[in-house]
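Form 7-S
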Amino acid sequence: MEHLLEDITVIDAATYLAGPGAATILADFGANVIKIEPPGGDGYRSLVGAYPVPYHWLLTSRNKRSLAMDLRSDAGQALMHDLVAKADVLTTNFMRPQLEKYQLTYETLKKVNPRLIFAHISGYGLKGPDADRRAFDVTGWWARSGLMEFIREPDQTPLPMAPGMGDHCTATALFGAVMTGLYRRERTGEGSFVSTSLAANGVWANGMALQGVIAGNNIGTYRQAKGWPNPFSDVYRCSDGDYVVLAVINTAREYPALAGALGCSHWLQDERFASVGSVMKNRPDFHLAMAEAFSKFSFAEVSKLLETAGVTFSRVTPMGDIIEDEQMRANDIVVETDDEGEGYPLTINSPITVAESPKRKPRRAPDVGADSLAVLREVGIEEERIQALLANEDLSMEELKRLWQIGDTNGFHWVSVWDHFYANPLKDRENPCFEGVAAMAGLAASTSNVRVGCLVFCALFRNPGVLAKAGVTIDHLSGGRADVGIGAGWFEEEFRDFGYGFPPLGQRFDQLEEALEIITALWRGESVDFKGKYYTMSEAVCAPKPLGLRLWIGGRGKQRTVALAAKYADGFNMPYVSPEIAADRLSRLQQACEKIGRDPAEIDTSVNLGFYMNSDRQPDIDPNGSLTGSAQQAVDLIGRFQDVGIQGINIAFRPPVDWDNLQVYIEEVMPHFAR
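Output:
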């Protein structure tokens, strides 16, 4: 085997840090780790807020695969049992009520898979009054263990800890527990319940001091009464602002060497400091003397003196210096990833090595649900059931951004969002669906090559002046790459739910035409006075002017849609139509242009096609307007559209995105057609 644990499958059903951290170490050694996330993504992904790089997620979700599923549903719970049946390890930090709610208790899963290693992390342990109490490492590991009380000066408010400090320690302990369980299974053939807690690891980390309490020596209380008890293991400031921490353990032997190194051998003749015993009796004075001595040297100077004298010490290293620390690099503590994406050239290695078993090269953490299809197919879930399980999901923002980047870097001409309040087709109002203007602005900011658009904004959802301003703003944000599509709207449920009523089709087109007249006038730089049946403008001006903004009209209508496109549009898009219907609409567009004296060649044309290439999945939009079958069949269908005069093909995705076949489309279909 190339990697030690490559024949081990791990279901990572934990969240935040300690449990997933243990799964990360398993993945580093080659385990097949399947990260379970809700369809909207693990909450830990967004912990850094507005910072553009989710660095915490990149650290503990590397080398994993993401499966998005809803554990609240019966179908999701049944699927989890199917996964567990073929797994070796499950990691979780769910509390008892959650384990019961999701049918994930050890007693339940042991019946599904008697060889399963069930690895559980709790805050304070599984028994006692706090067994069901929620915890994070700052509460369970840091505050509850006595560490927080000890690491402070007298009367100082206790200090917070470094982010994730206790979680990573606990993750390492859980990794050890998992390996112990696997070893036991190797000997007995049986699975087991292994566990640890934040509190147990915090108390273990503070074990030396706590054992002192047991023996009657409470150094926490002592420190609050008298300060730090040992000046030979304290921190001192150098002249250049760096700090040195000492670790003088054999004080009788090392003290004279330390005094000599600092140029203070006279301390040994001072009755206050002549011996270690006298130093301890006069430690406040000695601490001041030490601080004064260190303040005369830079760190570089004092480090040479201490090295020569054989005194154990370290620089208190700022975090920014760790990444380039030669020692950390030489020992693969900080490692290169070879990742070309944003913010991930290096990562922090897990702290265990086996010389004869190399670790995997770190691989960037996946997007939400990026591996759902592949994982479900690998474990033998039937295709019909897969589609039923994933049918109620919609694209997460992570998936949208991934699609945008693929479009921007693989030769696509443009990328479009849509303007709906609910996912289409409507299956669950709680499925994610992002607002169109904000999504298009995000698309513009996230790309640099493709044109960015929306097919199409519903004219009735916004005042036309507001939509005109939004379009210009996004055009400038993108550097002149914006295309704004406008239509009359059709999705009755979202109209009614969001308070727009649902006007008759004729009225919706009347409002669309008024909106188009206002928007195009504003974009031409005119001062707009307009009084219509639905909208009024009074000397309205849209500044600045557009840079490269283009107007599209979208729809399948034979009459008013075509007429409005001929009068106002730079582009005309037809969603989910066959080549024959597209040919008919192009003919009607040409006739409408001739009536008003416009050259139809001024108007670009395109169609939307659903993307179901190489899939057994049945299109949930018009199959006559979808790419189905092989790459060659896709080439043939696009060629038919090209033959009737269509200039552009927009492939439209419905979840789950088939990333593998999207790559096939890029490599085997797109090269047949000029951009």
